[in-house]
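Possible regression after last week's pipeline update?

I re-ran a chain I had predicted before the update to compare outputs. Posting the input and the new output here so someone can diff against the archived version. Not blocking, just want to make sure nothing changed silently.
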Amino acid sequence: MSQIVWIARHANRLDFVNPDWFLTAERRYDPPLSDDGILQAKQLARRLKRENIAHIFASPFLRTVQTANAVAEVLDLPIKLETGLSEWLNPAWMTEEPERLSISALAELFPRIDVSYTSRIAAKYPENREKVWERSGQTARCLATEFLPKNILLVGHGASVVGATIGFVGEIAKTEVKASLCSLVKVVRQCPEWLLELKGDTSHLTQVEEVIRFA
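New output (post-update):
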């Protein structure tokens, strides 16, 4: 039985473009996309337009929801918010568990959010790198199995993109996958194994970051 899982990192974020945003932000660890990030998300959407994706899952952080929404608009699909794809809850980056918008608040901003969907996997602060990889890998496998044979898109963060890929192809993902902003990973089910076809493709983008941050 065939299946394709696409895994995308969110597009560029406002605090990468304007670091001072962090100083006065209401939710310091939940930045929105930057203007160029919005453009990147639209380019990602055009890239995926003809890929026969049936379900879109996104981390509940604002930047991932914005990225997923750009794709959902083009594909005319709902967005399922999945906590298991969340940002790495790294205490070295965050002094506390990050505050996010509620699902109801996000759904008001993005009506394509499926409020009936219940997240399958939890993310608990604090996490080390191995924990976020394990959590996101478990999430990716769970969703692929549950929604088999449909092709799905997972929209996450640097660490959760790598972790999700590890969940399919194992340790090779740690060195092979380059999870730059708005990049694409593609894994193809070839029972009983998975084939890694794209390892962080950015060919759909007009602007690519030179240094990968927070991966």
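Follow-up from reviewer: compared with the archived run. The mean pLDDT is 96. Marking as no regression found.
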